[in-house]
Amino acid sequence: MKYKAILLIGAPGSGKGTQGRIIGQIPNVFYFSCGDVFRELSPRTSLGKTFMEYSSKGQLAPDSLTVDLWRNTIQAKTQSGEFSPEQDVLVLDGIPRNVEQAMLLRDSIDPLMALYLDCPDKNQIIQRLQRRALRENRLDDANVEVIENRLKVFETETRPVLDFYGSDLICKIDSSQPPLKTMYAIAHEMSRALPDY
């Protein structure tokens, strides 16, 4: 079966994690952060080492590895009862990160909408990521060069995903505003697209 999905798309520091965790509190909505799953991998495993190797440079992990990890995690969450595909809408943060991943996921997800969190102020993004680095001990957010590279990767790899899904699915949200106002804008768009939620 295809999972009903809402896609969270935005540059690093645009607020996807903050907003995704809030959305995930809504009944019958399941928030999935690919980055969180990767960060939970033990660096002693080959998969954990591979992820660390890529993330420390601000690069994306290989597509097949990312999609396989996503599939395995979703299956485990389904078997444990945390995620119910028949009832829940899946909110995806960090996947698909590029068009290749979007193509690999075509048979697995039925995108209902794509929330594009747009924060055009690059300095604001850098400040957010550096604050997060201190708060969450995320080394990939501390180095300005790594941040700059991650933003370039977003522009070249992830932004084309918006074109892949098309304008009918895209809801652009100004995420440069305070989190509560951003959440209000997201809730407004979700209530229109998902009247039963």
Task: Explain this structure.
The protein is an alpha/beta fold and 197 residues long. It has one domain (3-190): 3-Layer(aba) Sandwich (Rossmann fold), CATH 3.40.50.300. 51% of the residues lie in helices and 17% in strands. The protein contains 8 helices and 5 strands. The protein has helices at residues 16-23, 34-39, 46-55, 63-80, 99-104, 122-136, 144-165, 179-193; strands at 3-10, 29-33, 89-93, 109-118, 170-174. Strands 2-3-1-4-5 form a 5-stranded parallel β-sheet, with helices on both faces. The two termini are 21 Å apart. The mean pLDDT is 90.
Give a brief rundown of this model.
With 197 residues, this protein is α/β, with parallel strands linked by helices. 51% of the residues lie in helices and 17% in strands.
Give the strand line-up of the largest sheet: 2-3-1-4-5
What general form does the structure show? globular
| The CATH homologous superfamily | P-loop containing nucleotide triphosphate hydrolases
Q: Please give the alpha-carbon distance between the first and last residues.
A: 21 Å
The main β sheet shows up as: 5 strands, parallel
**Which residues sit in consecutive blocks of at least 5 with pLDDT less than 50?**
none
